[in-house]
Design a protein that fits this description.
Layout lengths: L4 E5 L3 H12 L3 E5 L11 E4 L1 H9 L3 H7 L5 E6 L4 E6 L1 H7 L4 E4 H13 L5 E2 L4 E6 L4 E5 L4 E4 L1 E4 L7 H6 L6 E13 L9 E7 L2 E8 L3 E9 L8 H11 L5 H9 L9 E4 L7 E2 L2 E3 L2 H4 L8 H18 L4 H30 L4 H13 L2 H13 L5
Parallel strand pairs: 1-2, 1-11, 2-7, 4-13, 11-18
Antiparallel strand pairs: 3-6, 4-5, 8-9, 9-10, 12-15, 12-16, 13-14, 14-15, 17-18
Bound molecules: flavin-adenine dinucleotide (FAD).
Length: about 400
């Protein structure tokens, strides 16, 4: 299908990646975001090999390698710092064909945005989409400021609180609380926190403290604590609260809490969405978190958003029965893949965060005796089950 005009709502990881893929395929795109300035929420993200492979396909592999951290090992430690397992990631890289990269979100966002803009596409900021209307011929998005944009199809990349999800499903589906709160940020990398080539994860009390390397000699860190939804917190209290939650944990965890700048820390309550009954209605398709927000316990939410963009582009390029038919094929492939990932991540979140304390204890016990080969196999299975196998 040549000469399509595609309107994208949302310029996060999903919207930007789809924009690049569609532009490279020769389609005309317009992209809108409600914010006045694009600033990613959260400090870092771990892009597993399937996400990185999407970027390779889009010609961004070298740029990604420059902003990604080098992670050679994964280390699990208990709260007192004792090593439970060390997993060499090279055999995984060799199985799946690409190294994963932890990356600062601002670096990733800026790389994607700059690349999209290099094709002459400007992101229309300060445009909050309020709804869409379609007829047999086309589909129109209406914005709060009165602007309207009509295209052959609309991609709803408007995130976990998507309003276009309601249009697609015909009903409102609210995000579901994953049961824990996450604090995340960046700190200068230092050996008193973790080895600079490893992803280190401390586990205990149904909580996690974690560090992974990103470019320019920094660590992306996060803390996870199961808390009732809506537990109040202000940046000025973050360190005191973390000290309380992680009292008695190993020295590097205490060092990390000391070193964070609480005013640069994001503190999301973790939610997910799905699996949904559909990802498509007529000429409107959900991609990324609007269709399948995922607990970050597999590190796959952003990677799935990236996969969506290339799969959607693929069907628009390779089928010619019409847009609605192409979107249905996209939906069929992505519903299965993303639904499985959402469910697996939710199960993993429950296992990590003590939904059933005996299950979490069994996981702690297992970490100490687990064969690294099995851990790598499990990660490879998730990566290779998608389109970038
Ligand atoms: P978003 O990034 O949320 O972008 C949506 C965009 O739409 C925003 O820019 C927003 O301003 C805009 N928008 C919203 N509504 C409107 C509207 N009405 N009109 C116009 N614009 C609108 N994933 C991984 O792959 N690996 C990880 O390690 C990882 N770690 C995570 C850690 C945490 C703590 C969290 C919360 C998530 C993590 N994820 C991870 C998931 C990942 O962040 C998301 O899956 C990804 O950001 C989704 O991208 P998106 O483009 O779909 O949505």
């Amino acid at each position: 299908m040549n000469g399509l005009k595609i309107v994208i709502i949302g310029a996060g990881i999903g919207g930007l990646t789809a924009g690049i893929a569609l532009k490279q395929a020769g389609f005309e795109i317009e992209i809108y975001d409600r914010v006045k300035e694009l600033r990613p929420v959260g400090a870092g993200i771990s892009l597993w090999s399937n996400g990185v492979k999407v970027l390779n396909r889009l010609g961004l592999g070298e740029k990604m390698a420059k902003i990604g951290g080098i992670m050679d090992y994964m280390e699990y430690r208990n709260a007192s710092g004792q090593l439970l397992s060390q997993i060499d990631l090279y055999p995984l890289i060799s199985t799946v064909g690409q190294r994963p990269y932890p990356v600062a979100r601002a670096d990733l966002q800026s790389m994607l945005q700059t690349h999209l803009e290099s094709y002459g596409v400007n992101i229309h900021l300060n445009h909050k989409c309020m709804g869409v209307e379609e007829n047999e011929k086309d589909v129109t998005a209406t914005f709060e400021n009165g602007h309207q944009s009509t295209g052959d199809l609309i991609i709803a990349a408007d995130g976990i609180h998507s309003i276009l999800r309601t249009y697609v499903l015909g009903e409102e589906v609210s995000p579901k609380y994953g049961g824990y709160t996450n604090w995340n940020g960046l700190v200068p990398a230092h050996e008193d926190l973790a080895p600079k080539n490893s992803w280190v994860i401390y586990v205990g009390d149904h909580q996690r403290a974690s560090l992974m390397p990103v470019a320019r000699d920094r660590f992306y860190f996060f803390f996870d604590v199961p808390l009732p939804k809506g537990t109040a917190a202000e940046p000025e209290n973050y360190q005191a609260q973390l000290k309380e939650h992680f009292a008695g944990w190993a020295k590097p965890v205490q060092n990390l809490i000391e070193q964070i700048d609480p005013y640069q820390v994001a503190r999301p309550e973790i939610h997910d969405v799905g699996p949904l009954k559909s990802l498509v209605r007529g000429k409107v398709a959900l991609i990324g978190d609007s269709g399948h927000a995922t607990c970050p316990d597999l590190g796959q939410g952003g990677c799935q958003a990236m996969e969506d963009g290339v799969v959607l582009t693929h069907y628009l390029l390779t089928t010619n029965l019409g847009i609605e038919d192409a979107l249905k094929r996209y939906e069929k492939e992505r519903k299965e893949r993303t639904g499985a990932v959402v469910q697996k991540a939710r199960k993993r979140a429950e296992q990590i965060h003590g939904k059933d304390p005996t299950v979490t204890q069994r996981w702690y016990d297992q970490l100490a005796v687990e064969d690294p080969h099995e851990v790598r196999e499990a990660i490879a299975k998730v990566i290779l089950a998608g389109p970038m196998h």
